[in-house]
Amino acid sequence: MLKKSFVGIIKPRLEYQPLTGSISEPILIPPPSTARLLVEGPVEERDTSLFSEGDPITAGQPLRHSGQTDAYAVATVSGTVGTISAYTGDFGKVFTAVTLLRSEEKTEQPDPVVSTPPSLDTALAHLKHLPGTLPLEKFTDQTKPIHTIVIYGGDNDILVTTNQYIVKARTTVLEHGVVSLKQITGVDRIVLAVPGEAVQTFGHLEAEVKKVDMAYPSAFPQMILHTVLGQTLPAGKSCEDLGFCFVTAEAVASLGEAYKTGHYPVRKLITVINKAEKQQLVSAVIGTPLSDIFQQLGITVQDGDRIIVGGPMTGSAVYLEDYPVMPDTSAVVVQDKDAIALVSDYPCINCGECVRTCPVYVPINMLVRLLEAGLYEEAADQYDLYSCIGCGLCSFICPSKIPIYQFIRLAKYELERMKSAEETNESS
Amino acid sequence: MNPRKKFIVSHAPFWHNGSNIPERSYHTLLAALPAVVVGLHYWGMAAVAVVSLSISSAILWELAINKVTKKTVTIGDGNAALIGLLFAMLLPATTPWWAVLTGTFVAVVLGKQIFGGIGGNSFSPVVLSVAMLSISWPHLFDFDGMLVNYDLDFVMVYPLAAVKHFGAGTAADFSFGDLLTGRQVGGIGATFGLGLIAGGIYLIVRGFIRWEISISFLAGIFVAALIFNLIDPTRWAGPMFHLLTGYTLVGAFFLATDDSSSPVNFVPMLIYGAAGGVLTVLIRSIGAFEDGVIYAVLVINLVQPLLDKIRPKALGKVV
Questions:
Q1: Which of residues 187-246 of B touch A (CB under 8 A)?
Q2: Which of A4, A239, A385 to mutate to test the interface with B (most CBs of B within 10 A)?
Q3: Per-residue pLDDT tens digits for A47-61
Q4: Of A94, B84, B189, B255, which residue is the least packed, with the fewest Cβ within 10 Å?
Q5: In this complex, do A235 and B24 lie within 8 Å of one another by their Cβ atoms?
């Protein structure tokens, strides 16, 4: 964990880690005997006619748990459906957890969808949860037409090198993916943003190549828009409102692989960061329980440790060792219980470190006072709550150890809830 | 089935740079120590008694208020000890015990805890306390009167009083060497210029105080004193004299920089410091008091929330 430097007058600068030198192959984790998938939506609303326990399943088959929603997950192993249960994630988000029991016989038949020419409709119904996740639903909103797709060839969070590896080692499928993505979405302008120095090597891609700074949080979509593309995202708007859609390099590479080989890619690349903060790239089938990966890498987890899905600055802690690898799991961090920095209920001492480190100039010292008092609307009106891009640097440096970013997310969540409640009241 | 392991779940970010409040307090104490030690050397056991009583009573007041209000005990963060030490640094060595106790009570209880404890105070607790005591018992802060029984081998006159009452010509009696090395009449920890500067630089380099405030405070004093001095050198002493006497250095590095009562944005910090410096010289030159640091700091503390409205526009702000 990066500590404050002795010379404290220098602003702390967290750097993304460049992937340089000879790139070693990721460790291959064998397919799990039991894979676990999470489908968005409560288990109670499940339409049992769609699939039920004991049904045979083939890899690449989408699993919809209800006819009401578009939510689905894609089976990544062939076998039978095991148990179906409920799972609750961050902010009370509910999922239906489905276990798949893998059978040994292999199915080598080509996937029916990716064998046909690419189209948005088939891709939407089948390819949203490719390794890396492809946000295809963002191309369906006619009111917000997308004119530029930004492929980011690096990772949001520090220490994570998943997408950098894809850009360096899987260029052919990436190239193929760019072509397929253009066909599916009909968007002509593709920008490939890559971290650091390696700009020259991408001349063959049908995309504009741009360089992104190595200082955290330059790789956040809002920051790339601002510094690389010269567009400032108005507070509270999304990149799609401006016509930009951000996708990860891994998703594009997976798309390319799918159409190139005719098989649905099931393996996700993950940067695993162990207790000694050493990184290891692994390739695991989506749905593999994290415990399988830990076992393979010799990582032991005990009571009181922390397992984080995502990077050390922006990830989310999970409470199950068996939490599955998800299509968007770019990193897994394991922290020893002695290395965990705890938060405190100490008040803000107004030292201003947060204000001076905030990349988007949010007056956090004032904001946190309002948020602590639960004055969320005032915070949004007066102190730029919606400008926050969620990098977590304020919490990282706070001497009082206030969970500032947690307050900010809670405030955004509560405001969202209030807004939807008001809308329901108006319509009824 | 194995019993399920229990993991710690919490919110992002999962890293912290390790900074904390005790670290800030203890390093500020450390930075103040050279000035205090030299003061103790000149003023002897009486000063030791004042410093000891001040620190210990400040801690005890904090503990008492923690207990009375049934809050977590916060004396471990070192802030109470820091208040005690800074308060003692401003006192003459012969301050009676009851004044020290009253002073630390005002600083810790009225100056800080009433506002909700650390971070809630809108005035520097030490400055507030000295201001209240110096109004209530002006003779306690009359350094010439209080230290009349000392006869050390340097000019035994409080420099600021001398120039106030006998004209700027008396400033020549005090050599810069004496002023820098603590050979002047004043508060226990406020006289050793070199030590205060070294402590201030240490705090700035370590990032515990904001250089913008200290430097602009000193610059404000320098410029304002220079202007006065140029207008009439016989009435008003030069800028270097003002920088090295009274509470100037302790004010610039330890009082004006109090976290919760000072601004956090760049431009406000500069205005805040400069305003403090200019006010100090104004009070010293044309005001009723010999030293102006205390009231200058109180005034800039007061305008701090207003100053902090000057801030960079947040990225993506739509107005």
A1: 204-208, 210-211
A2: A4
A3: 888 888 888 888 888
A4: A94
A5: no
